[in-house]
Here is the input.
Amino acid sequence: MKAILRTVLPRTAGSLVLGAGAGVLAASFALQGSAGWGWVLLGGVGTALSIALVPVTHRVLAVHHVTAYGLPGVKLPSAPQAWVPSVLAGASLLGTAAILNAGWSMLWWILWLATVGAAIAGVGAYAFWLARQRGRRWPAVQKALDGYGPVFLIYTGRKDGGAYQIEQWLGPLKELQLPFAVVTRHNEAADALRKRPALAGIPLIACLNTAELDKVISPTVRAVFYVNSVASNINMVSYRHLTHVYLGHGDSDKEISAHPVHAMYDKIFVAGQAAIERYHAHNVLIPKEKFAVVGRPQLRGVRPGPRKRGPDEPLTVLYAPTWLGYNNASTLSSLELAGPFIQRLLDQGVRVLFRPHPFSVRTPAERRLVAAVDELLIRSGSGHMKSAEGRNADLVELFNASDALITDVSSVLVDYTATDKPIGVIAGPQEDLAGRYPSLQAAQLLFRPEELDLLLGSARQGRNPRRDLGSAYQSQSGSFDDAVWEVLAARPAA
Here is the structure.
């Protein structure tokens, strides 16, 4: 019970107190309407000051805390509890409501407003103290990092850390058996990554400004690897004595896979020749010596060819849609169209493995679409993999456990070509899809659910009629290990 309380209370205390304060205050305003607008105005001022405590306090507690995990010999104080700002604001709202209900004199209002002002001033003083402490704690982090001696860094500027983007490269990078660290630009990112089992034992350091980036560039660091195209990458790329390598987080025909900003990196690791041609097709002119064809080292465990099924084992299809995207060019998800296609699979006794994109939990619309697919699988009976399990499942294991794939324009499509199994893509109303997205040539376009029958027939026969069209996406000769070693040897440590 104590363990449950320690887990639940910190997560709910702020919301409960803030909610209670807001509710009581709303009732108080309603009751005070007849007492004159002067009281309501004073209550509004108190409310505004109360609400101001939330972002101010949160910023103080988050920004000025030094976040570094996994460094030998370094144990920094834990970050202040995230519920503190909400509790302060909620208590302040309750105080405002109490004064309104009691009808106290102007003197009480002045005293109360002075108390709130003193609280804000206290937060400011605490910020100043934390800033000084942050400066004093960095030398310990820097000394430990220099002693650890990372040979390269993984950089992510995403506020959520981009865990899935980092984790797909951890296996190949760990196999090099070289010390490395992960650098984030937000404390929240480091806190989130710390919870990921795959990152256990790897140093994580948050650098909130460029001055702190200086401190993590140890003399042993030779290269920096980038797993996404966040704008803050340019801050790290400015360290020109290092070699900067763009890894990305999947090879696909999405616009981010051939973005002009990639030209700022010293090296661009690509899966195959098709990726290089994609840049040229989008008029992104990058010198050929910047490219290194490394294949997809994450797919080393893929077993190509037909899967051996038991005599009574059903056909298994992996449905792995991408997310809804952030603009028109990246809106390529089939989730809105998936229902009839999934139902067709279920009607034919197919086992479905459902793996939505990690970002498909971000908006209510996407969560509803994912839930709709889950509902179809639940109604069909047991044996299917729903989104909760599939989202965290290892992609290579899902590839090996399936007989065919249904997906969209995404890196999953390109990666699945390594299995030599049939691929289907649910097609929307867009015209000339295969012309716009060349990777679709390796898949069967599905405009109607009935067209699934041809895909399932190929899967049952253990053949992939489009196997030759996927060969350009998978290098058979490029070596990721050799490419990394070449990068690390290109520029000696300072």
Summary: Confidence is low (pLDDT under 50) at residues 1-20.
